[in-house]
Amino acid sequence: MISSIAGDINNKMMQYPQALFIISKILPKNHFLFRKPYNKIYKSIDFEANYNQEELLRLVNSSIKIVPYYSNIYIGKRYEDVNEFENSFQFINKNILIENSQDLLSCDSKTSENDLVTTGGTSGTPTKFYVHKKRCQKEYAFYHEIWSTKGYNG
Length: 154
Known about the structure:
Blueprint: H1 2-13, H2 17-26, H3 30-44, H4 49-66, H5 68-73, H6 82-88, H7 94-99, E1 114-118, E2 128-132, H8 135-148
Antiparallel strand pairs: 1-2
Helix pairs in contact: 1-3, 3-8
């Protein structure tokens, strides 16, 4: 029953990500509040350098295959080395986001699983981009793991 109530709270709170921060201050036991997705991600975080480099290359190579924007720029490219990636992969900027918003969605992305968000636009035109609806669970798992290195144990 408690798990069911926590699940209902969790589902409702995902609609209001800012409120999650406030709740985490009141109820810092995030493993209970965010439930399975958070716990799975939190337990899988590994800050070891070699692992992160391998994961970066996996993510980049996957993006080249399934994200039209990158597929068009890096036709058939596969990165095997982080140095090669650092020296040749191009950063995107606000203009690229605005002009290529649809091409920056992966082919397997479902818009129903994403929220269209915008930046504040204080430096000009607000930038629109998609983020996964359940991003808070992943973000907070990383925040809490990083904070735990400084003594926070939520």
